[in-house]
């Protein structure tokens, strides 16, 4: 029996998570993928969202659009609220009118980082800055306007494109003999392609009749620090490139000044997504090794 593919529309398809989901889903005959970047769909314009949904009639909308720099959000809080909160409301309202389920990606920054043991989906949200506040308001807007939603919070996202810790670390390691890594902020790095695997697995189960709407956490397995993640990136890259850096020094967060305050603990507990969807965490180290290998397969030095 021939089945029609499940049609997924991805907003922000030129960003880290959006491009990873699009590239992964395009390899799976289960899906028909409609990847729309910022130029193709302005998510701040409700009429353009409605027009896109009317044109493509997707089975699911995955919202990956937004302003995802915490420091920039502190400089431009109104823009962060527009792109992360108002845009989510626009998409959710349009999806609600057409009864199209929505997947919303969110962040560990909705928490203040004071729980050293990590956070569950029911723990109190308390953002430290404009970025976390805008993403939390985006969650609340989705919950209000589209009851059939999945919100997935993730942490320390890295990939082969965009502005992320892995690529920034490689760039710095090529230019400097000495690097510094914050050693008192804990979290779980997450490959954008691992997150894509999770989103796709969730949609497949929803398409088969699962009624498991709500908020979920997903991140890579193993807690580390920014210093530890930096070490891992450089060790993996040295298999393919002769980097300039020869020393990495651990520093305290208070000595590493940034515009936005970061949570000291960004550990997300992922029991719920395992219990409901059977999705297990993958070790971020193996994901990093795979991504670095593929990255150097495309980039020559």
Features:
Rossmann fold; 10 helices; alpha/beta; 301 residues; 6-stranded parallel β-sheet
Describe the structure.
- There is one protein chain.
- The strands form 4 sheets. The chain has a 6-stranded parallel β-sheet, sandwiched between helices.
- It is of the alpha/beta class and 301 residues long.
- It contains 10 helices and 13 strands.
- Helix 2 runs parallel beside helix 4 (77-98).
- The mean pLDDT is 94.
- The chain has a domain at 6-158 and 189-221 and 262-282: NAD(P)-binding Rossmann-like Domain (Rossmann fold, 3-Layer(aba) Sandwich), CATH 3.40.50.720.
Kindly, what is the distance between the CA atoms of the first and last residues, rounded to a whole number of angstroms?
49 Å
User: Could you name the CATH topology of the domain at 6-158 and 189-221 and 262-282?
Assistant: Rossmann fold
Average per-residue pLDDT, rounded, comes to 94
Characterize the biggest β-sheet: 6 strands, parallel
Poorly predicted parts: none
Question: What is the C-alpha radius of gyration, as a whole number of Å?
Answer: 19 Å
* Name of the CATH architecture of the domain at 6-158 and 189-221 and 262-282: 3-Layer(aba) Sandwich
Number of helices: 10
Structural class: alpha/beta
Could you give a quick summary of the protein structure above?
This protein has 301 residues and is of the alpha/beta class.
